[in-house]
Amino acid sequence: MTRARGGDELVPEYRWVLPSVLLGDGREDRRIRRSLRDWVVDIAMFLIACGITLLGLPEIQNEPEPLIAIEQVMGGLSCVAIWLRRRWPVGLALVTLTLSAYLELVGGASVVALFTVAVHRPFKISGPVTLLALITLVPYLFLRPQSDIGPLEWGLLLMALILTVYAWGIVIRARRQLIWSLRQRADIAAEEAKRLERERIAREMHDVLAHRISMLSLHAGALEFRPDAPAGEIAMAAGAIRTNAHLALQDLREVIGVLRHSRPGEGEPVDDTVPDRPQPTFADLPTLVEECRQAGMDVRLDLRADGVPEGLGRNLYRIVQEALTNARKHAGGAPVTVTVTGTRGKGLSAEVRNPLWSRRPLRLPGAKAGLIGLTERAELAGGTLEHGPTPEGEFVVRAWLPWPLETTLEDA
User: Fold this and answer.
1) Where are the transmembrane segments (predicted)?
2) Contacts of 191 (CB under 8 A, 6+ apart)
3) Residue that finishes a domain, picked among 146, 168, 186
4) In this structure, is residue 230 part of a structural domain?
5) What is the pLDDT of residues 60-77, one digit of tens each?
6) Quick one: 9 and 118 in the same domain?
7) Is-above-0.70 flag for pTM?
8) Range of the domain at 76
9) How many CA atoms lie within 13 A of 277 on its CB side?
10) Residue 332 belongs to domain with CATH number
11) Which of 131, 176, 240, 320 has the fewest CB atoms within 10 Å around its CB?
């Protein structure tokens, strides 16, 4: 993490580097590029300085000629120097404030310079500059006495003017920092949303492709171990391989289409509506179990729940699908029991059991991220997931998902 320019902190959780475009800060080693808004502001500041300078002309009419010439030259130069306020705000303020301790026509530029420092620099810099402005009032009051107002009243008036200008600059700086921090938070939220969407797509593809590929491996293994099988069984296994390969490619093609749709090319319109492929629901569990049975698995399904919302049922479907995929990979041929129970208001539970032994283990490579992904999916849904061997020699995946009394739009 880095600190903002000058050391001021913008957001409690983060410390940012303020962009020069936001605060208009310039550096001595690069040229400042003004936007249209910057040009308007700079012209306004220049006119304000010139206006205050012109108001001070009557005050020097009775001065000696050489002093009047010095006043006019320094007043003109100070007004022209306003165009350098973005590159050297502190230096301009120090010079003009020091000269304003005696010279009358430098006062307009010193006010603008003080305002610029208050906007562009943190308190540890702008505070001492403001203190210098207050200190320069002392010699000014003695060297430039007013005939129509006392020194005390005149000093209080000038002090109020300086503090008002400084407070105005502080308010503008705080507002710019707030806007900048809100933009940063919005950008972070957008990046977080993109990351979550990528994780969601990756999780869905892992669940789908792991299931399809394990089915392919199961049927291919059957052909490998039984090359002398009847022609009908070989044709059935080949058809199952072709079907699952087609479904896997179709799932992959749909997700790639989603990714391409969410990242349009140059010149293409951006559409925020990302088309999702059809998602399975709780009603598709019997179809999933029947598909596993046709592949040779011994799966028993016990459903004791009804009216499960779509979102909740989709999460449960993915958990059961991944659990069956793991059972097929590590305990092929062993009987698997799937038990689903739940009622509205108490939650929905799923338990997948299978013995640890295997007659036909599938030698499939894996990243060992399936159970981790299931745990993350359950936790994101507000539930829990447990998995591991039991003393009875079984491997159990047990999940619980909340099922509220009232169905929300996300669950519907």
Assistant:
1) 39-60, 66-84, 91-119, 125-143, 155-174
2) none
3) 186
4) no
5) 777 788 888 888 888 889
6) yes
7) no
8) 5-186
9) 17
10) 3.30.565.10
11) 131
